[in-house]
Amino acid sequence: MLKFISFGSGSSGNCYYLATANDALLIDIGVGLRGLKKNCKDYGCSLSDVHHVLITHDHADHIKSVGSFSHDYGVPVYATQEVHQGINRNYCITKKIAPEFTRLIEKGKTIQIGEFRVTPFEVPHDSSDNVGYMIEAEGVTFCIITDAGRVTDGMKPYISRANYLVLEANHDVEMVQNGPYPQFLKERILSQTGHLNNRESGEALAENMTEQLRHVWLCHLSEENNHPELARKTVESVLRSYGIIAGKDIQLEVLKRTTPTGPYELAIE
Fold first, then answer.
1. How do residues 115-126 score in pLDDT, each as one tens digit?
2. 3-class DSSP state for residue 188?
3. Cα gap 210→242, rounded to integer Å
4. End-to-end CA gap in the chain
5. Distances in Å between the alpha carbon of 151 and those of 72, 89, 154, 191, 254?
6. CA-CA distances (angstroms) from residue 194 to 55, 66, 120, 203?
7. Which residues contact 51 (CB under 8 A, 6 or more apart)?
8. The Cα angle at residue 186 between residues 85 and 231, in degrees rounded to 5
């Protein structure tokens, strides 16, 4: 049985924990190590149990502490070559990943990482590079898609294969358009390499989910341009228009931005 915890999901910092009985990994480490260590202890796990780190892309809210964590715990970090290069260029990351802990992955190529079978896939975003991950372990298929400007044909099969899915629902379009952000930032968010809005997330789910999808968590909500209840209700409304009832056909939740969400036990009965 897999355990899943979100230790932060949003522009203040992203970090996700996935564990089997004997192995654990982190997806992104954009939160502070001190807080992460405390939260792990509060949830009955330890950072010393983490043996692998997967990075989606090189924006600071996803990589803030990855170099320090890798150094302090001697843990390898997996990312595409472009993402590793972006981490090395990022001035926000004072502690870089040492060469001996650098591991390269390629989009579309499945690799075994400890007890996890990991497939990275392309996700469009305005970073050096960006991937989603399909992770298989103990008979469960877990998928994460964050910081996505749009849902491409290449991403859809991974949604269809998921038993458990973390999917971005970053903003409400009207809130962005009518909000205080400067025009260039509004255009970036709404662009094809920006972020998924609530309705797009609902449509991506409705059009690609299968009966094997058990649970969906909406992630990376904007503090200024969204609200957890608005995101959930919008996605629920879109699903309902396709005849899919949240709470009955799938479980739908929103991940907290700055505090942990979980833990969840992921299993196929």
1. 999 999 999 999
2. helix
3. 13
4. 10
5. 36, 28, 8, 12, 19
6. 18, 23, 19, 17
7. 23, 24, 25, 75, 114
8. 95
Give me the pLDDT at residue 269, please.
Answer: 72
**Does the N-terminal peptide bond of residue 263 adopt cis geometry, omega within 30 degrees of 0?**
yes
242: helix, coil or strand?
coil
Alpha-carbon Rg for the chain, nearest whole angstrom, is 17
Burial class for 250, CB neighbours closer than 10 Å (0-12, 13-18, 19+): middle
Number of Cβ atoms within 10 Å of the Cβ of 248: 7
User: What is the mean pLDDT of each successive set of 10 residues along the chain, which is 269 residues long?
Assistant: 96 97 97 96 93 97 97 97 96 91 98 98 97 97 97 98 98 97 96 97 98 97 97 98 97 97 92
DSSP state, 73?
Answer: H
134, exposed or middle or buried, with CB in 10 Å at 0-12, 13-18, 19+? Answer: buried
Query: pLDDT tens digits for 137-183?
Result: 999 999 999 999 999 999 999 999 999 999 999 999 999 999 999 99
Q: Which two tokens stand for residue 44?
A: 């009955």
What would the two tokens of residue 40 be?
Answer: 């792990």
Q: How many residues does the chain have?
A: 269
Q: Which two tokens stand for residue 204?
A: 């991506």
Task: Provide the 3-class DSSP secondary structure of residue 128.
Answer: coil
What amino acid is encoded at 188 in this protein?
Answer: R
- Closest CA relative to residue 105, chosen from 71, 132, 65, 137: 132
Looking at residue 57, its pLDDT comes to 98
